[in-house]
Write a structure and sequence with these properties.
The structure holds two protein chains of two kinds.
Chain A (H helix, E strand, L loop, with lengths): L2 E12 L38 H13 L3 E2 L2 E2 L2 E4 L9 E4 L6 E10 L2 E14 L3 E3 L2 H4 L4 E3 L6 E7 L6 H17 L12 E11 L9 E6 L2 H20 L7 E6 L4 E7 L9 E2 L6 E2 L2 H9 L5 H10 L5 H8 L2 H13 L3 H16 L11 H12 L5 H14 L3 H8 L7 H14 L1 H8 L6 H11 L6 H11 L2
Parallel strand pairs in A: 12-13
Antiparallel strand pairs in A: 1-10, 1-11, 2-6, 3-16, 4-5, 4-15, 6-7, 7-10, 8-9, 11-12, 13-14
Chain B lengths: L7 H19 L2 E4 L1 H16 L11 E5 L26 H8 L3 E6 L19 E2 L2 E5 L5 H8 L5 E6 L5 H7 L2 E4 L19 E6 L2 H11 L17 H5 L7 E5 L9 H16 L3 E5 L7 H16 L18 H12 L2 H14 L5 H24 L2 E5 L15 H6 L5 H5 L4 E8 L5 E7 L5 H14 L11
Parallel strand pairs in B: 2-3, 2-6, 9-10, 9-11
Antiparallel strand pairs in B: 1-3, 4-5, 6-8, 7-8, 7-12, 11-13, 12-13
Helix pairs in contact in B: 1-2, 4-5, 6-15, 9-11, 9-12
The chains are: A alpha+beta, B alpha/beta.
Amino acid sequence: MAYEPVIGLEVHAQLQTNSKLFSPAPTHFGAAPNANTNEICLGMPGVLPVLNEQAVELAIRAAIGLNCTVNHRSQWSRKHYFYPDLPKGYQISQYDQPIASNGRLTIKVGDAEKTIRIERIHMEEDAGKNVHDAALAGNRSYVDFNRAGIPLVEIVTKPDLHSPEEAAAYMKSLRQILRYLDVCDGNMEQGSLRCDANVSIKPIGQKELGTRTELKNINSFRFVSQAIQYEILRQTEVLDRGEKVIQETRLWDSQAKMTRSMRSKEEAHDYRYFPDPDLPDLVLNETQIAEINSSLPELPTQKIERYISELELSEYDATVLSEDVEIANFFESALQEHKNPKAIGNWVINEVLRAIKGTSITTLAFPPQYLGRLVKLIDEQTISGKIAKDVFEEMLKNGENPEDIVANKGLKQVTNLDEIEPVVDKILQENSDNVRQYKEGNTKLLGFFVGQVMKATAGKANPKLVNQILQDKLK
Amino acid sequence: MAERKVSSLELTNLCLNHIEKNDPKIGAYLHVDREGAIQQAKGADARREKNESKGALDGVPLALKDIFLTNDLPTTCASKILENFIAPYDGTVVKKLKDAGAVILGKLNMDEFAMGSSNEHSAFKPVHNPWDLERVAGGSSGGSAASVAASLCYGSLGTDTGGSIRQPSSLNGIVGLKPTYGRVSRYGVIAFASSLDQVGPMTKSVKDAALMLNTIAGHDPADSTSANTPVVDYASSCDEKITPIRIGIPKEYFVGELDSEIADAINQAIRVYQNMGCEIVDISLPHTSYAIATYYLIATAEASSNLARYDGVRYGLRKDPGQGLNEMYSNTRGHGFGLEVKRRIMLGTYALSAGYYDAYYAKAQCVRTLIRNDFAAAFEKVDLILTPTSPNVAFKLGAHQADPIEMYLADIFTVSCNLAGLPGISLPCGFNRDDLPIGLQLLGPAWEEARILKYAYAFERETEHHKRRPNGL
């Protein structure tokens, strides 16, 4: 039978705060185990939580960026379960009164646009991490609480996604917005963006949803579609065998490229949620929300529109340049040096993106202003486009500014007629056969002559000028 | 001390001698810091010598219920699960007392995790009532009350979740104040029921309680439930001129079989206030009969959550992990918690369970609002409310061990005040035929500790009960 997948995503995004959600302990990644802890995030007796206002602001930014209603009153609840990485025996989270609800995010799959509804965004604290590494721990387990208490938002969609591709597109789009808003660095490998997927299938056309499974441990972008793809196939086989899908939580095993049962619905925890008596409700007024709203940076769709209308870029270029906020910022900084959006855009898309090969643009050896100045050198005919590529390679290598490279290597374009003419004469003399053919009508040979002249001048001759002189002399 | 008639070292040594002589019979202390106390006393004397005294509490020997975290002494909460635990930090009130120069004699016995009204639920030893060593000291701050009554310290700190300061104060013939919820920081106080717990002083006199409150009250940025309401000078409020006020007597507190001697003592107390010109008004707190059930649902639910952190992973007791994690949890918690604590964790876990939450916890919160409204309506008509603190005097050790419900019911006069978050005081108002103390409770509107203390002090001036000390020790 033909089935239609129904997918909902629950995404945990780590908020980029300096301190934890309820304690002043630091949050930076890569610290020695348990270095980023204090008595509060270790759940010592007698400690009390105090809410981090920066985390609330970031959550509100995310909510506005995802077109949610920010709720004027939200509530902190305790979610109980026993696990060594959970210091208090409960996680402080938001349960029936989240900070934001009813949002939407537009995604693009191929050429089609689609709006995915967001049910809610709630804030919560992260747990620590159990370490079972045999080399490190032998037959013991250790707990690293550095992550315990780090602020998260959980962003929950409605079951509006219908293919692994749509799920991947949603993740991509969500990550883009969170990065634009400086809410989350979006690094799935480091765990600052995590995705759980609720997946079910139903016969095409049927209204009623099938039994869903929840997929956990999808810890890389590639795995979002892989895990969902696998699970759709698995459920299809189960139904085709005439069996029923069991409601359960399944773990994605990225080595084996499959999902495995973790716990059934019957084994599910009773979390015994209740409002945390240590924390007053989070009350926000319209002025606070409006203030944050007015401080929001331009979002991807707004940027694309502006690039097209004001900078006269093509839709393709505008989209590529806006894909990542760091790239867009790089482009705009370069543009401040020299107002040629089209040319700078091309350089970013063709050369810079190739050079960074998917890593962060901040790893480049030179600042964006240098790219602007490089294009300026071309536009002022100080160097040719061809030479500019060599200069660019130098910039990549040692971060030097383009003017110094051109000066030190003597790459300045030759625009002096008295210097070019003798070269042209020499080339024409040496190639009399070709000159004859040209004069008999094979005008395609002009390119050959230009190439020879450029070669003879080590590329430094102004190609336009060479062209003109050649045409004059070959008349 | 200010008049140089006595030094802090002399007072401290006096307490330490009393402790050495009498505490083996009473069992009020879990930990005595003899050397530390002497050192602090010498420091206080030196400051006074140089006219650099830090104020009223500088050099005064005090002691702490073992629920207050201290970074230099063990904090056990009278539980095996925290036996030998030394906290990495001082709680806010401990820091305030230390900053004020108080001499900390040690840590006081209590019911395990503050759960109980008799101090028989300490994992280490019960507290005996100094007035009659066969009897209980009350609880949960039994050690805090008995140590003051037996002059093993000049004042102590307790915590009150459903009467844990006031009831033992009543049973030991001392003064115990439970401030408004949010008046005193809870940071560094081991939580029992977070929405009910409040810290307060336990002393020989009302003025002493006021002086201690002066030091510990105030907003704490580390406690999100602590209030920014201004703190007044509670000690000087005591000396303000008495004006006739209206005192309410809730009819629901005087039904059933109130001990006749307690009833007599309360009636005499009422007459003392009448003689000051106060108007006695009959009032009603109609939801009183639901208070015990409401209290035990909310308190146990919060406790089941607050005590989840004692899992053997990071600190305190850890028993054999056996076959793995779950066994480590059950061995550790099974061995570390006493019977009453387990009983309340079970009750609270049940009350929060899926399918029961609405019927129990959510319903209890609704009734809590009704109880709060009762008091709001009453305080439209009266300025203070007067009741007995406890329906009984100190009972014999072991008397209620078979039936925990019976002991829960004895909290009837104290729990409503916690549910409503209001301030209340217990002070001595008489003795029964066996020379056992009887306590009077005054309740006030939120943030009116000064009014409560002022009228408690007025009562103290007119009576001699607070001057009596247990003899025969």
